[in-house]
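go over my protein:
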Amino acid sequence: MTISEIDVDELAELLASGASLVDVREHDEWREVRVPGVPLVPLQTVPDNIDVFSVSQPVYIICRSGARSMRAAQYLESQGVEAVNVAGGTNAWIESGRNVESGPAGE
């Protein structure tokens, strides 16, 4: 199964157009730094939270560097969800100089 991938430049454009992005890292990583407004569904809980991903348009998946998000995207595709991996993950987002959030949601 081939999973589509995009880079953070493409992601930024898509987010500006209302695309759906989900972070699959662990809570402590997400709390430390994340793409603004991105919800968290840790990789191990993806199967229990499949309804979060069931959207009528592609869902973009991000982690730290792209490995966990690729595994999540593969699983989601096997469940009929159109999932796209973000190559380079949150590290690439940070390196690009884009805005980030940290702390609990809403801080």
Notes: DSSP finds five helices and four strands in the chain.
